[in-house]
Amino acid sequence: MAHRNFKKEDFVQDESGQYKIEFQKGNIGEGSDLIVERQKEDGEYETLQAEIKRHEENIFIFWSEPFDGRVIFDE
User: Which residue of 12, 16, 30, 68 has the smallest Cβ count within 10 Å?
Assistant: First the structure.
């Protein structure tokens, strides 16, 4: 499985107050097997049940606050 790291600075706050990060389908694939993990202070990762939405060629991940983490996907 492949992954893409992201930083909390990559998140953008939307009109509802939630934070979202955007990926292109071409960068992480189109599969439904996306796993979102948040990096803890000790460097380990924990799995989140984040809201994921797809629109055209984009995939959006929503969470209540920005965080450092990664998205895991099939190549």
Answer: 16
Residues 1, 14: Cα–Cα separation, whole Å: 30
- Let me know if residue 20 belongs to a domain: yes
* pLDDT at residue number 26: 79
Do the domain assignments include residue 52?
Answer: yes
Please state whether 58 falls in left (phi above 0), alpha (psi between -120 and 50) or beta.
Answer: beta
Closest to 70 measured CA to CA, from 52, 42, 46, 53? 46
Q: Which residue has the tokens 């992480």?
A: 28
Give which of 25, 17, 27, 26 is closest to 62, Cα–Cα.
Answer: 17
Alpha carbons within 13 angstroms on the beta-carbon side of residue 70 total: 13
pTM here? 0.84
